[in-house]
Write the structure tokens for this entry.
Amino acid sequence: MFVLFDEAGKFMAGRILSEADTSAQVELDSGKRVKVKAANLLLKFEKPAPAEFMATAQAASQGIELEMAWEFAPDEEFGFADLARDYFSAQAPLSEQAAMLFRLFESPHYFRRAGKGRFRKATADVIAQALAAIEKKKAIVEQITQWANELAGGQCPEPIREQLYKILFKPDKNAPEYKAVVEAARATQTAPLALLQKSGAIASPYQFHWKRFLLESFPKGTGFPALEAPAIDASALPLASVQAFSIDDSHTTEIDDALSVQGLGSGTITVGIHIAAPGLAIQPGDAVDQIGRNRLSTVYMPGYKVTMLPDALVQTYTLQAGRDCPALSLYLTLDEATLDIRSHESRIERVPIAHNLRHDQLDAVVTEEWLEDRTCISQIASQPSSELREQLSFLYRLAKDLKAKREVVRGKPETFNRPDYSFRLVNNDEFPAGAEPQGNETVQISTRQRGAPLDLLVAEAMILANSTWGNWMAELGVPGIYRSQASLAPGIKVRMGTRALPHAGIGVKSYAWSSSPLRRYVDLVNQWQIIACVKHGKAAALAAPFKPKDASLFAIISSFEEAYSAYNGYQSGMERFWTLQYLRQNGITELEATAFKDNLVRADTLPLVLPIMGAQNLPRGARVRVRLGEMDLITLDINGTVLERLDAPADEPADADANADADEQDDDEVAGPIAIAVDVSEPADASSDNPAP
């Protein structure tokens, strides 16, 4: 005796070896023996053999007209054998009963399953909807095939072009556009990104990077809602008796900080560090704060930036020359001879901004020699710098002293062996008014050695302010957001937290970013806390917006670190993009470089790191001439081949890498495969046509 049974929704047939009230032992044609529950035994038959019986029934099932079977079916629940006798004849053989079973089971849009071998017919409305859905799916499948064929033929359908970045990075894997890309990639055995490049979907490498970044970081765009800048009651603020000046690049619009010097020649000097004070107007939780908290930082890239706050608000609070600007000021009283800091005081006030000095205009003027030797006369006339010569000279002297003292704490001096690089897009003259680069502008790359006098005096002043205010908040029990580093040992990274811990890399007791509230949200948060300290002194912990162990501070830190990492990663990627464009525009095929690790070299005169071939295990510091290979502006890949070594090989100490300055962070990343979300290895979906119950 043979039996047809249901095994987890799959019909099988075999020979009954033994049978009890609740189950039966069945042997399949393969020889495998299975135990089948009695409820799953659907038909028993003596002939033909199971394989032949199943084949005959399957073939007969395809001749059953569903519409007619639906008409014959009763409105109440029924069994397949009953419907077979109504449809075929009252003496319908077992093969026809099995055929009806198979047909009913594979047609859930007409007949809903109600149990083992039991069914209930769907309503006419449900059938109409199901058939329409089937036709729609059929049309979608045909559309997917058509799009896939076009992609394989080197043409990108417009719907796929419109959804390109979503397909690549945040896809709906049930969308036909996504499925067409997967199908075409499989058919052509081509990686999806390469396939889309060949089909012309990616018309501009620059736009590829830009739109990818927007999708990931600004899915709703970079525009701002219409908001008015909250007003600061300037009349309530005292006017400082200083003439302050800022030092920034020419394209800087968010002027956060300025400096002042008083008392030169008196033996006691007062240095003022003045920070723009949007925290006096913007309040935690208000509409402007929500914008800042969502963006968390200004995003910088060559030729363009996405500001943390709307430009109209920035211009309200920026330290613009010719205005008396609301500011949070830190005044430090120093001994003019020894440069020892005797005291400090913080004030909320209006500060007259006399000058906005610009690095790119003054670096050639304000040199170390010009600052330290009063007889030195610059060949380039600059009235503001001449007026401020004594103040700049003192600040430079102070900066060197502060740096030296920090280096004692650090345990070794800071080194600046690599220059900073500046990018200028020649055909993008409207920047910073909002002209978005197109990627084909002529790029100029210039250098400014780290530690240049103007850089140094501003950097040391900001370190002094951030550490002084960080210590002060801790003394008053007011929480802030700090950056700390436990030691300079390899692998010990800078961390953010709410505790005032030492920063070994800088060499200070504590360090709280506070000097850039117009472009970093963390600084704005700390400014609110410092303002509370200024207003309430020892009672500040009770009045500050953020209280000790406030969970929102930890949430801000987490969000900031994620966003800041993404923004910095994009900036690095775009600097690499424009560096490759510079090579292409200037026809550079060879360059000189220095090895630093793992067969990687760093170009001597450009911000470029690349892998090399043709020289294994070059010692750190070896200088070579490199021939450049093909570049890819989508993946930002480029490699090189060593043509010759430019320095004389010398006996290298076994621990040469260990002796390298740990401060020289080899954090330049070589471009690699772009991580996309298109997975051609995923199995095709097996969606059901069964209507919803």
Summary: The CA atoms of residues 82 and 97 lie 8 Å apart. The chain is about 35% helix and 20% strand. The chain has a mean pLDDT of 88.
